[in-house]
């Protein structure tokens, strides 16, 4: 009995510790911390330091960064993501938020990628977008979003967006639960890292030949 209950305590404690590790950005300790983004900071903290709060103005809390579509012309996948960040919107520093404008060309994709530090909720504002994510049991959840429809991508999971329309661009807006969500594209992380992952790893991992690896690297600009 005593043994069982202490085992239970250990299990609960380790579960609690696990849950505590899955947490969003730390809470701010003040109303705001307008990012001081001048170059060559002499000390480094988790985020950006604040300017003197007395110097904060309304302009620190507004941006037009997302007002215009990003150009999808030069991107091989046909997408462009424009983000708010501590430079174009210094007032968001420490607030645990990012807004992203996602423009996708006709027949373009945002290829499978993940955000290690943020969950994402997206709303389709123009066109129609096939979205999906894969969970850690390798199960796919997918949906076609029409204008006004939303979808949520849980933190860290691989997801994609695809504009199947061959004639019209699509546009979605996403909110992310970190001021620095981070993005890893699965294909680029695997095939175009610097330095490169050795070919023998990729031939085994993807069950393909050496020529396949080289061709994929070349196609992806690696
Ligand atoms: C920042 O540091 C770099 C390298 O030390 C230097 O070249 C640059 O001029 C500095 N910039 C400013 C604004 O001080
Ligand atoms: C995204 O769009 C902006 C604005 O048109 C452009 O300056 C930038 O180069 C584009 N980025 C990519 C990766 O195509």
Automatic annotation (TrEMBL):
Name of the molecule in the record: Germin-like protein
Signal peptide: 1-22
UniProt-annotated location(s): Secreted, Extracellular space, Apoplast
Chain residues that bind oxalate: 115, 120
A molecular function (GO) term: manganese ion binding
Residues engaged in binding Mn(2+): 113, 115, 120, 159
Top-rank taxon, per record: Eukaryota
GO CC terms in record: apoplast; plasmodesma
Keyword tags: Apoplast, Disulfide bond, Glycoprotein, Manganese, Metal-binding, Secreted, Signal
Family, similarity comment: Belongs to the germin family.
Disulphide-bonded residues: 33-50
Pfam families: Cupin_1 (PF00190)
InterPro entries: Cupin_1, Germin, Germin_Mn-BS, RmlC-like_jellyroll, RmlC_Cupin_sf
SUPFAM superfamilies for this protein: RmlC-like cupins (SSF51182)
Metal-binding among keywords: yes
Start and end residues of each Cupin type-1 domain: 64-214
């Amino acid at each position: 009995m005593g043994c069982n209950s202490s085992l239970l305590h250990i299990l609960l404690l380790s579960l609690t510790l696990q849950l505590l590790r899955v947490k969003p950005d730390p809470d701010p300790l003040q109303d705001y911390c307008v990012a001081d983004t001048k170059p060559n900071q002499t000390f480094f903290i988790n985020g950006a330091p604040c300017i003197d709060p007395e110097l904060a103005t309304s302009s620190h809390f507004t941006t037009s960064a997302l007002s215009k579509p990003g150009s999808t012309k030069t991107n091989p996948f046909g997408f462009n993501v424009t983000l708010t960040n501590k430079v174009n919107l210094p007032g968001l520093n420490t607030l645990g938020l990012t807004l992203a404008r996602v423009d996708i060309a006709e027949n373009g994709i945002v290829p499978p990628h993940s955000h290690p530090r943020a969950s994402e909720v997206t709303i389709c504002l123009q066109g129609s977008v096939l979205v999906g994510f894969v969970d850690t049991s390798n199960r796919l959840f997918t949906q076609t979003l029409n204008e006004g429809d939303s979808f949520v991508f849980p933190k860290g999971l691989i997801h994609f967006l695809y504009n199947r329309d061959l004639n019209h661009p699509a546009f979605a807006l996403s909110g992310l639960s970190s001021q620095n969500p981070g993005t890893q594209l699965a294909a680029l992380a695997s095939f175009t890292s610097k330095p490169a992952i050795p070919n023998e790893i990729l031939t085994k991992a993807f069950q393909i030949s050496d020529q396949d690896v080289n061709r994929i690297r070349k196609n992806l600009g690696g």
